[in-house]
Amino acid sequence: MEKVGKTNPAATANILSKIFFWWLNPLFRIGSKRRLDEHDMYEVLPEDRSDHLGEELQSYWDREVLNATKEMQAPSLAKALIRCYWKSYSVLGFFTLLEEVIKVVQPVVLGKMIEYFESYDPNNVKAFHETLGYAAGLSSLTIGLTLLHHLYFYHVQRAGMKIRVAMCHMIYKKALSLSSLAMGKTTTGQIVNLLSNDVNKFDEVTIFLHFLWVGPLQAAAVVGLLWVEIGPSCLAGMVVLMFLMPTQTMFGRLFSKFRSKTAVLTDNRIRTMNEVVSGIRIIKMYAWEKPFAALVSNVRHKEISKIMKSSYLRGLNMASFFCASKIILFVTFTLYVLLGNTISASRVFVTVSLYTAVRLTVTLFFPSAIEKLFESRVSIRRIQEFLLLDEITKGGTALPPEEKRESSVELQNLTCYWDKNLDAPTLQNVSFSLNANQLLAVIGPVVVLLSSILGELPAEKGVLDVKGQMTYAAQQPWVFPGTIRSNILFGKEFNQQKYDRVIKACALKRDLELLPAGDQTVIGDRGATLSGGQKARVNLARAVYQDADVYLLDDPLSAVDAEVGRHLFEKCICGLLRRKPRILVTHQLQYLKEADQIVILKEGHMVAKGTYTELLQSGVDFASLLKKNEEEEQQQPQQPPPPPQDFPARGRTLSQISALSQTSSVQSVKDGDQLPGETVQTVPEESRGQGTIGTKLYMKYLQAGANMAVLLFVMLVNVLAQVSYIMQDWWLAFWAAEQEKLDNKNSSIPIGQNVTEKLDLNLYLGVYAGLTASTIVFGFMRNLLLFNILVRSAQALHNRMFNSILRTPVRFFDINPIGRVLNRFSKDIGQLDSLMPLTFVDFIQVFLQIIGVIAVAASVIPWILIPVLPLLVVFIFLRRYFLKTSREIKRLEGTTRSPVFSHLSSSLQGLWTIRAFGAEERFQKAFDAHQDLHSGAWFLFLTTSRWFAVRLDGICAIFITITTFGCLLLRNQLDAGSVGLALTYAVTLMGMFQWGVRQSAEVENMMTSVERVVEYTELQSEAPWETQKRPPPDWPSKGLVTFDQVSFSYSEDDQPVLHNLKAMFRPQEKVGIVGRTGAGKSSLVSALFRLAEPQGKIYIDGVVTSEIGLHDLRQKMSIIPQDPVLFTGTMRKNLDPFSQHSDEALWNALDEVQLKSAVDELPQKLETQLAESGSNFSVGQRQLVCLARAILRKNRILIIDEATANVDPRTDELIQKTIREKFRECTVLTIAHRLNTIVDSDRILVLDAGRIQAFDEPFVLLQDPDGIFYKMVQQTGKQEAAALLEAAKQAYNSSQRPAMAANGHVETEDGHLVIFETAL
């Protein structure tokens, strides 16, 4: 974590370097030569460090809380913020004031210059010198503005950053100490949301805040100056301006209303997408793509219609902004002329410039300031609510070393409530005491008990006394992103011997040898690279390594298979830890004999406690379960486990890993091609076109939304809008010039003849009105058209991408982490929906305006083109130079941001663990380190963009200076109107030019999103869902499955996982498929379902599966998957997404799997919405729902991929029974992990390394002591093995066998036919 960056040169830079940002030059030099990475970043300035800022604000907040409690009122976070930051922030207000003063003075100076041209007299040298002074003044004001503006901006953005960082620090600190009750009131999502969205408001609010007081001042000053210039008509313009403000604010309101509606729909769509991608294997096997596609497109349709509306609003808003100045001028001058005044160039252009100066402040900055202020008030309120939640009080202290022996836990009549408002206590009158080196086993729902011992749940009454330091292994294993070693050490120093002992005891040795980097392997978010069993063991190892006094182990044995479980129990729980007091929660009853005492909990009461023998004698209702279990398991605890070295690597046969089917996981260890690529799930840099983005991509993007003819028409409208925009100003200049000629003419007429000519007002005003109207019409038209096209292309691209994702083979999802795929659907599509159209339109508008400015200047002084060319070259070079570095910095800013969030969410998941280990301080430090890294990148992002902006505005200042002095040089050929036009336009170039360039860079950055989406629209797709060759409707009527020389690999370039399989499963036969991990059991299913195309032929009732459509094939086979997947939506949708069955059928199916009562209790029965991926059902219940699906489908072929863990014995028995009864007529293939479920099958297929090792009846297989099956049975322990043999024998004797060859084949020259005949 400790990255020592380079020291920050900003700290030591001199004043000039600070103004021009010279200290960044070395960074740009590096950036232009190679890609930047984290080592190139400067470390954060000491005053921006997370811990420093956080603690400073925390102290103000603590003081505020104290004062508020004294005065009996609610504490206010806003007060604390203001107290902490008002001094440093108010200094910046002075900058704002200076800047806005310059903006008002500029037009006045401009007016003085134009006046010189109006009363131009070649002989008046004094006036000429004066004007030279004005020109110099104008240029220096421009340059001053450049420097001031960017310094100011840099400082306010940094102020925003400081507030944000301090807030994050406080939020995280608070999150680590939330009580359980408080955790119930908030969710991980909400806290992450506070960190990702709410605190960002501070970044924005600081930029505009000062305009709240500067804005009105500036407006007043401008009105004053205008009054002097054109008298009371100026008020008309100001009225229009004042009218514009509320309409823009209203647009903003409407917009945020749409935004929040859209956000809900977007969340929905992403949640659905998340499920589709996570459950894609199941969706494909069930052939459920269509209902899901309908679901997504339905939500997307609603979302797009909202987005379209809000885009139109944005378009109107931008167009009104574009036309605003024209409308204001039109109203002002029409009134002015109608009042009988005459127009003159200086008046026109001073007015234009003053309005331009004030317009931005009044219509943009001031409303934004108000809007951001309201937004940040909401955020502050939300953060404040969070900071005021309850905190936890810690119990259990470490013992001084000499008392180490005395650690104990004592409970007397303990009663606790999760929630005071519910009347039933969650724990009632529980008493037991646990002394040194005792093992206490707890049975029943026990989360409550452990949480009260850990101090997570406050005791209501009774005594809870824990002596010694506790450590805890959670039931849901928790690992945090980092190496496996760091997960186990958890902040303790590394001690080789102790570490090795722990690894060995926790059965991790073999797993670590298999992983590419051993214990230095990096675990992705949520332990993505480890199987569930490995996570559980790492979790246990962490607790054991801590060397604490009291151990609380919450069911660490359920996620591992029996063999590993026994090893953990004997070598670790009763081995390494035998001298410590331990509380072990377990469902696995075979371990209870070893326990010193047993406590049985039921609904918060203690039903029984005592030793194993006492409980047996007292005949507790549980004892019956124990007895039965013994007969089933018949496993002697005395029997030594097999020596660890000939452990087969079975640590992986975990249900959790099924997402990567076992085969591919072992495959990957073998080929080493997959795991390393996926260990760290920071999405690797994805293929990205280096440098600029091709025109081809822009065309692809635009053509997704409209055809060429429409695009050409839109281009035309754009040009027309810009032309009429300029013509309107030009007409004013022309009018002023005509007026001037007239005035000169009239003044030369001798006195006494009152023949003064007047201009034809109707003509001039008419043309002026016409031009204004066309500006408005074209301005609005082009924006609405552009937005429409861009939103439509987002829609089209999303649909193409989604369809392509649904049709791509499963392999794609094994290689690409879910996050990467979802990222395209959330972030990239989000960019295309809302940001891209806005930026794109803005860019086109500004780009055309810049061209307009240069064109106007060139039409007045053609010579200006000579200096413009070198400036253009410099600019293009600068932009390229800047983008190289800035793109990398933007990327760094993104990649350094995600650890902040993942650290938060992984901390929240492991909150109990972190607290039980007392690691809060360390995690806080890690969080600060992540924050500082991000601040470093953010700081560079701010400063580099300022560096660029200063240089761009420098180019503009040079352009303005050249234009100004150019006008003076050519003073003999120019009239006042043209000069005014050229200069006014040149001055507007200042902010606009750099804005345009920034937007162009933004558009280019966002085009990478388009690129990524387009990349996913062109994925390879699997075989068609339906083909010409449809199987007969009642196929398969028998359920005969034949494999003929089938080989199978997950992709073309992979090693085959199955080699030349030849086997035949007869109709109605029940076949068990066994083999060690990685033998190819799941691959057999994949081949059958054509999740990738197998070589060789698979026949089902004589139809070659590879010749028919995938849906036809997959709908005819049922599968009960290894990890049961439920989808968000109603219970009915989960059972029957196509609505093919009646209610009665659904209820019958539920009844058969004994879920009827459970569903009946739900509020809306079948229509109840399930929580995210069915988390409100237990794993066992979800397994039963999958079984109900299979019952409903009534297929002849059923495949069961047996779940290893987490299904309690009752559910398991129920599933077995249902399968035997309901599917008697079907061919059933079971992939087994526990042998007792398949030992009475008709035949057993033994796979080893992708080949068939044996295929015969279980009893026959057990006669061969060298066979794999025999060895597997022996490994279960003596008594279990005897029971299995007995079961096999019974099944053998009761079955009638057809006379067939040993392996089920009769092989002749033309093999297949005979197979069919014998089978039929």
Automatic annotation (TrEMBL):
It is a multi-pass membrane protein. One of its GO terms (molecular function) is ATP hydrolysis activity. The keyword Glycoprotein applies. Keywords: ATP-binding, Cell membrane, Chloride, Chloride channel, Endoplasmic reticulum, Endosome, Glycoprotein, Ion channel, Ion transport, Isomerase, Lipid transport, Membrane, Nucleotide-binding, Phosphoprotein, Translocase, Transmembrane, Transmembrane helix, Transport. This is Cystic fibrosis transmembrane conductance regulator. GO terms for cellular component: apical plasma membrane; basolateral plasma membrane; chloride channel complex; early endosome membrane; endoplasmic reticulum membrane; recycling endosome membrane. Its cofactor is Mg(2+). Interacts (via PDZ-binding motif) with SNX27 (via PDZ domain); this interaction accelerates MRP4 internalization. Signal peptide: none annotated.
